[in-house]
Amino acid sequence: MNEFLENVKKNIHLQTAHSELVGSWSVEFGGRIDKVFHIWKYDNFAQQTEVRKALANDKEWREQLLIPILGLTDKQESEITYLVPWCKLEKPPKEGVYELVTFQMKPGGPALWGDAFRRAINAHVDLGYSKLVGVFHTEYGALNRVHVLWWNASADSRAAGRHQSHEDPRVVAAVRESVNYLVSQQNMLLIPTSYPPLE
């Protein structure tokens, strides 16, 4: 894991020359150990295709970044998501930890569960214990999946805020409504890598 992270840190500029890295984290709790999570930004599918072509033809990227980490990589997954229309990508106020919460919603898409889901997220935002970084809905991957990325000053402040939210009647009411459309939910505590633009 350390060798992987050091190599990426040293050579990530070869990839960011082609596309924008929103953030990079390693999983601390709640998921597979020694897992790294990246968010890359593309304006559209055409740009993403052009970046892939450019990288495939970039000998320096292949030799210095891709090939060295292939032997250190056990598994790789990719999803295409979009930022939901009612949420802007926010930068955190300072260093901290992140929580990625993944919701598998019932089939039907945002037309079915979008309003209730938004109210539940906003109820947490209004309490102010955590900062919403972004809400992402899958376009390719498991459909009806929503990822919500939160920033917290620390794991302890996140835990205290969550306990507070469980006792807030506004949050309880909004979550009670949203959960009618929920199939499953999972979260991970993420620690920024040493090469994150989103700190």
Keywords summarizing the entry:
39% helix, 7 strands, 7 helices, globular, 199 residues, seven-stranded antiparallel sheet, alpha+beta
Structure in words:
This protein is an alpha+beta fold. Helices cover 39% and strands 29% of the residues. It contains 7 helices and 7 strands; from the N terminus they run ααββααββαββααβ. The protein has helices at residues 2-11, 13-16, 45-56, 59-70, 110-127, 155-166, 169-178; strands at 20-29, 36-41, 80-83, 97-105, 131-140, 145-152, 182-192. It has a 7-stranded antiparallel beta sheet with strand order 2-1-7-4-6-5-3. Strand 1 and strand 2 form a beta hairpin. Helix 1 packs antiparallel against helix 4. The mean pLDDT is 92. Belongs to the NipSnap family. Residues 1-88, 98-196 form the NIPSNAP domain. InterPro entries: Dimeric_a/b-barrel (IPR011008), NIPSNAP (IPR012577), NipSnap_domain (IPR051557).
Pick out the low-confidence regions.
Answer: none
Rg from Cα: 18 Å
**Strand order in the largest sheet:** 2-1-7-4-6-5-3
Average pLDDT, to the nearest integer?
92
**Strand residue percentage:** 25-35%
Q: Give the helix proportion (percent range).
A: 25-40%
Please state the overall shape, judged from the principal axes of the Cα atoms: globular
**Which structural category fits the helices and strands?**
alpha+beta
> How far apart lie the N and C ends?
21 Å
Count of DSSP H/I helices: 7
Family: Belongs to the NipSnap family.
GO cellular component, one term: mitochondrion
Protein name: Protein NipSnap homolog 3A-like isoform X4
InterPro entries: Dimeric_a/b-barrel (IPR011008), NIPSNAP (IPR012577), NipSnap_domain (IPR051557)
